[in-house]
């Protein structure tokens, strides 16, 4: 596999690379790359044949979009890039610090029509373009009716300001309802889900993966290295200096728990069998998971990105995949239990019937 093993994203005609360039590390920030390094990362991704670039209005307070817009304009590659950005976090507050009570504009965040139009216009300006290829709802705000979200985003597709849209960080039922409403009302529907997914974060397999398949949505994992944890660079007995994963962090719960260290041990063993970096094995596993279309890679340096891209040429054996699957298997929830092999056989007279897209 390489970055030019293009595929369509969900049930759409949008053609993307198997690895997308995440640009959360672009722009000012404690764990970010400086401008020159960000440019070099962008160029290295393009040189490797990648066409899919992901940013968000909130990354570095708009700084990431500004740099991505500049790099695309300077390289004159707007037509070749599938440009994705996101709305929903509040434009009047930093997402990475606890917001102060009051003071902000409540309509400068969320998925209401007023904010979507505000956010899109600001992103288009920073990105120096008049359309977005893939517009993401970054996170569901928990209150805006799904009908309004689908109508607003579908109208933007029809107006040509965005080509497609996707849903990130939302309950599976919401994505399914959005897809259903869209098709019933003949409004353009979501084509992709962006979710935290890695060897140490597989809980989305039970509800989100089947919903994506049923709703015609491709899955884009974020934090496939669990923010760097799955690179193997941290030590179980010394988690004192762990960069962006230190202490309370905005990327969720601590990655430094016994279960994750045990999973990492299996990844390390396979990396050593293959004589490849640990991070590449973790990425190679993500790349071939059924339902995953394009995996978001984050990098703070060019060498990290180049090494991560090299994961595309790893072929994990059946035995290696099984060991990784077994070590990281999520607890079977009620829904995934319903299609467990034992139940299938009970239903289908002892046969292991395989469903569409499984
Ligand atoms: N939709 C959402 O809510 C959401 C949330 C998060 C991210 N995202 C998107 O997903 C992209 C990727 O997410 P992520 O940054 O969390 O991905 P990740 O791959 O899990 O973590 C990337 C970080 O790991 C470290 N790293 C990367 N490659 C490495 C290597 N080969 N060896 C050692 N360390 C390495 C770097 O941090 P250090 O060098 O500082 O350790 C890098 O910044 C983001 O850029 C963004 O576009 C979306």
Which H/E pattern describes the elements? Answer: EEEHEHEHEHEHEHEHHEHHHH
Biggest sheet features: 8 strands, parallel
Count structural domains: 1
Structural class: alpha/beta
Apparent shape:
globular
CATH class: Alpha Beta
Which consecutive residue ranges, at least 5 long each, have pLDDT under 50? none
Query: Per CATH, which architecture?
Result: Alpha-Beta Barrel
Strand content: 5-15%
CATH homology superfamily name: NADP-dependent oxidoreductase domain
Roughly how many Å apart are the termini?
A: 21 Å
Average pLDDT score: 93
Under CATH, the topology can be stated as TIM Barrel
Percent helix, as a range, is 25-40%
Radius of gyration: 20 Å
Can you count the helices?
12
Strand order, largest beta sheet: 9-8-7-6-5-4-3-10
Bound molecules: NADP nicotinamide-adenine-dinucleotide phosphate
Please give a structural write-up.
The protein is globular and about 50 Å long. An 8-stranded parallel beta sheet has the order 9-8-7-6-5-4-3-10. A two-stranded antiparallel sheet has the order 1-2. With 358 residues, the chain is of the alpha/beta class. β5, α3 and β6 form a beta-alpha-beta unit. The site of NADP nicotinamide-adenine-dinucleotide phosphate has 30 residues, from β10 and α9. One of its GO terms (cellular component) is cytosol.
